[in-house]
Amino acid sequence: WTPASDSDFTDIRYERTATPAGGIAKITIDRPEVRNAFRPQTLVEVSHALELAREDAEVGVIILTGEGPHAFCSGGDQNVRGDTGYIPEGETVGRFHVTDLQIQMRRLPKPVVAMVAGYAIGGGHVLHLCCDLTIAADNARFGQTGPRVGSWDGGFGASLLRDLVGTKKAKEFWLLCRQYDAAQALDMGLVNTVVPLERLEEETIGWCAEMLALSPFALRLVKSSFHAHEDGYAGIQQLAHDANLLFYASDEAKEGREAYKAKRRPDFTQFPRRA
Ligand code: 2NE
User: Can you tell me which residues bind hydrogencarbonate (predicted)?
Assistant: First the structure.
């Protein structure tokens, strides 16, 4: 892995590696002293790194992970939680930056893979839910803690979880705040695979390499197709705009554009009305 940004990140690392089929970006939440809990700055940096990965034409897949073997992410940093949200350093009014980040992850037209060692808890659990795939180490533990600390995530944290594990089980997560080990997570469809901790990164890179060998635009459409239903109008919009990106390359669409620029009536009679 090589550092891949000039940005002055304090809470994350942004790195890249090249494979014969394309590049993989890795975003690591680097706050192991608090089990990789996120503060506002952390989320601002993850968001920036996701944007860098999106704009980088070499990058085809993104890994989101946490530093060290003990935690992927333990959710919002309770030390900076105020009465109005999570308070950015030097400010007084709180925010929920994670709301926008979750949507950004789902909108990103490249697969995002959660690489989970140790705890994926609270808002950290929701981050893995928002990833397209999850590769877990055998020491991974999953759970929601919201009601224990006076919080909850009734958005993606409830709906995506329900889609994955069913309503009763999702409610169990939230109403009892239990933790589940990697084998249980695999059994309930919460993760894609479980591997020994020492093989976690190798396995994750293997999955990324498999995706890199596939059609990037087809992968983009696969992702937006799933979200078209789940994300309502916003999901449909993304899938529709993805289709539009392809339509723009057609002679039919080009005729509309060229006619407009030439100030003439477009001639669409040359194109078939497909059955
Ligand atoms: C993650 C977990 C289960 C780990 O347990 P363990 O025993 O392995 O570690 P320990 O000793 O609890 O944690 C190590 C250090 O990390 C801090 C701890 O306070 C401890 O600090 P020291 O005693 O060494 O000084 N730490 C861990 N998680 C933290 C956190 N989230 N904020 C601040 N400090 C944290 C265990 O640590 C745990 O249960 N952590 C709390 C999980 C949690 O409740 N997260 C917040 C959920 S709410 C949320 O994320 C959220 C939301 O609901 C809506 C919007 C946005 C966010």
Answer: 144-146
What is the rounded CA–CA span in Å between residue 92 and residue 143? 30
Q: Pairing between strand 193-195 and 141-143?
A: unpaired
Answer yes or no: is the ipTM higher than 0.95. Answer: yes
- In 10 A of CB 175, how many CB atoms? 10
* Strand partners of residue 29: 12, 66
Query: pTM here?
Result: 0.97
Taking CA atoms, 272 is separated from 23, 223, 249, in Å, by 40, 30, 16
Strand order in the sheet with 141-143: 71-73, 119-121, 141-143, 179-181
Distance 115 CA to ligand 1 centre (A): 19
CA dihedral of 181, 185, 188, 191, whole degrees rounded to 10: 180
Type of residue numbered 23: G
- Rounded CA gap, 143 and 174, in Å? 8
In tens, the pLDDT along 148-197 reads 999 999 999 999 999 999 999 999 999 999 999 999 999 999 999 999 99
The Å distance, Cα 240 to ligand 1 centre, comes to 40
Q: How many residues does the chain have?
A: 275
Distance (Å, whole) CA 152 – CA 72: 19
| Pocket probe mutation, ligand 1, options 35, 101, 149, max atoms within 8 Å of Cβ | 35
Name the residue with tokens 């339509």: 247
